[in-house]
From TrEMBL:
Residues 96-107, 197-206, 255-274 have a biased composition (Low complexity). Belongs to the 2-oxoacid dehydrogenase family. This is Dihydrolipoyllysine-residue succinyltransferase component of 2-oxoglutarate dehydrogenase complex. PROSITE patterns: BIOTINYL_LIPOYL, PSBD. It comes from Roseovarius pacificus. Pathway: Amino-acid degradation; L-lysine degradation via saccharopine pathway; glutaryl-CoA from L-lysine: step 6/6. Pfam families: 2-oxoacid_dh, Biotin_lipoyl, E3_binding. Forms a 24-polypeptide structural core with octahedral symmetry. Part of the 2-oxoglutarate dehydrogenase (OGDH) complex composed of E1 (2-oxoglutarate dehydrogenase), E2 (dihydrolipoamide succinyltransferase) and E3 (dihydrolipoamide dehydrogenase); the complex contains multiple copies of the three enzymatic components (E1, E2 and E3). Residues 207-222 have a biased composition (Basic and acidic residues). It catalyses: N(6)-[(R)-dihydrolipoyl]-L-lysyl-[protein] + succinyl-CoA = N(6)-[(R)-S(8)-succinyldihydrolipoyl]-L-lysyl-[protein] + CoA. Residues 212-249 form the Peripheral subunit-binding (PSBD) domain.
Length: 508
């Protein structure tokens, strides 16, 4: 029986990839989920696992070939003679293949789970168990941290944790091995055996210095005049990928003016010894590094500008106070201000569609829908869950979605899919007491609305000075496609809808 190996889904808007490396040759035995090859797209590297155990037959797409989604890569022959042979660098005391869940002294590999669309690696943040600990099936073993979310890894079977391969702080690839468990009656005996075998296995591992680089990376290095020793590889076993070459070239370009402007190489000013003793140095989490990079990229890429207005919250507050009890009783969720602002923004985006658009090369892509991003602060950093088709949702549906996604964000349970595809973002700094700020765009979006603290201020109403609950609004926008007129019009429409909420009901 023959099984086809095809190109998996490559990510949103990605339709083709280049075959970077084959890890197996025709005739090699492979286990189910063992990595066969690595594909390289414009953005990420994708590993292709074996769908079944068997023998690799024909390789249809060779290294360097360009393939589309669902294209045929290779075939695998299944059958009695196709069972995977033991890896040569493993000790003979590993009785079962990877992923085996058989009892009676078998071993079970703990693998990195699927991390989400376009996410290929993670950092091991915490191990909840140590070597020798007994674990039950589905008990949490460790926690991984990606650019966006935290992923908990449960035990695939009951047994004893016999070896931890990826320690805390290590970077692991999607589908990589984290640990080995001994299951069944031989669990206790397997743990020390695996520990003794580990050094031998480690010594047999390749150093990574003679790993073949991706074909596209070799071509890019030749074009840019960069040697392999100048590039830090991020692929499997340290393999240099095309994006690694691009990063190295950008770093070299940036380093030249920096070196002339700053002769001293010290990254920071000298710190007195007594001050240094009281400092604490903590490595940035992957999420914090991603936040820093994306925010700076946004400032460097977009022609960002911010315009301001203020809104009288009297009518919204009165409407909310009048119906909040009935609203909660009927819908089971509190009536907050975010649903009013979401509705007001959806209303304004219909009139000023360029604020709901994005730039793609030399094209402007207008979105005839609103996927609203709601910036949410969490203990680990800022995330932006997306409420899809917010323009077609009711107040109750919006409030339920915000409450549910906010709770998942704070617990670190959001998936990558829940944070992708947003067309516009709302950020509420007012919950922290912010009176005025300029929010930074969330690429590739062209607009973000900043909400702020509601504060009683003296206002002139009908010739008299009265105290009114006022809020400053800030719209940061990409001036490349949004003109000042459009930005101001958007803010005025939001202001009008909030100061007279009846306009939302009548679509005015």
């Amino acid at each position: 029986m023959s099984t086809e190996v095809r190109v998996p889904t490559l990510g949103e808007s990605v339709t083709e990839a280049t075959v970077a490396t084959w890890f197996k040759k025709p005739g090699d035995t492979v286990a189910a989920d063992e990595m066969l090859c690595e594909l390289e797209t414009d953005k990420v590297t994708v590993e292709v696992p074996s769908p079944v155990a068997g023998t690799l037959g024909e390789i249809v797409a060779a290294e360097g070939d360009t393939v589309g989604v669902d294209a045929l890569l290779a075939t695998i022959s299944e059958g009695q003679g196709a069972a995977p042979a033991p890896a040569p660098d493993k000790a003979e005391d590993t009785p079962k293949a990877a992923g085996s869940g058989s009892a009676s002294g078998g071993s079970v590999d703990v693998m990195v789970p699927t991390l989400g669309e376009s996410v290929t690696e993670a950092t091991v943040s915490t191990w909840f168990k140590q070597v020798g600990d007994s674990v039950t099936q589905d008990e949490m073993l460790c926690e991984l941290e990606t650019d966006k979310v935290s992923v908990e890894v449960p035990a695939p079977a009951s047994g004893t944790l016999s070896e931890i391969i990826a320690g805390e702080g290590d970077t692991v690839q999607a589908g990589g091995k984290l640990a080995v468990m001994a299951s069944g009656d031989g669990a206790a005996a397997a743990a020390p055996a695996k520990s003794e075998a580990a050094p031998a296995a480690a010594s047999g591992e390749p150093s990574g210095k003679d790993v073949e680089d991706a074909p596209s990376a070799k071509k890019a290095m030749a074009e840019k005049g960069i040697t392999a020793d100048q590039v830090q590889g991020s692929g499997r076993d340290g393999r240099v990928m095309k994006e690694d070459v691009a990063r190295a070239a950008a770093a070299a370009t940036a380093a030249a003016p920096a070196a002339s402007a700053q002769p001293a190489q010290a990254p920071r000013a000298p710190v007195p010894a007594d001050d240094a003793a009281r400092e604490e140095r903590v490595k940035m989490t992957r999420l914090r590094q991603t936040i820093a990079r994306r925010l700076k990229d946004s400032q460097n890429t977009a022609a960002m500008l911010t315009t301001y207005n203020e809104v009288d919250m009297t009518e919204v507050m009165a409407l909310r106070n009048a119906y909040k009890d009935e609203f909660q009783k009927k819908h089971g969720v509190k009536l907050g201000f975010m649903s009013f602002f979401t509705k007001a923004c959806c209303h304004a985006l219909k009139e000023v569609p360029e604020v709901n658009a994005e730039i793609d090369g030399t094209d402007i892509v207008y979105k005839n829908f609103v996927h609203m991003g709601i910036a949410t602060g969490t203990p680990t950093g800022l995330v932006v869950p997306v409420i899809r088709d917010a323009d077609s949702l009711s107040f109750a549906d919006i409030e339920k979605a915000i409450a549910e996604k906010g709770a998942r964000a704070r617990d670190g349970k959001l998936s990558m899919a829940e944070m992708q595809g947003g067309t516009f973002t709302i950020s509420n700094g007012g919950v922290y007491g912010s009176l005025m700020s300029s929010p930074i765009l969330n690429p590739p979006q062209s607009g973000i609305l900043g909400m702020h603290k509601i504060q009683q201020r003296p206002m002139v109403m009908n010739g008299e000075i009265v105290a009114r609950p006022m809020m400053y609004l800030a719209l940061s926008y990409d001036h490349r496609i949004v003109d000042g007129k459009g930005a101001v019009t958007f803010l005025v429409r939001v202001k009008d809808a909030l100061e007279d909420p009846r306009r939302l009901l009548m679509d005015l």
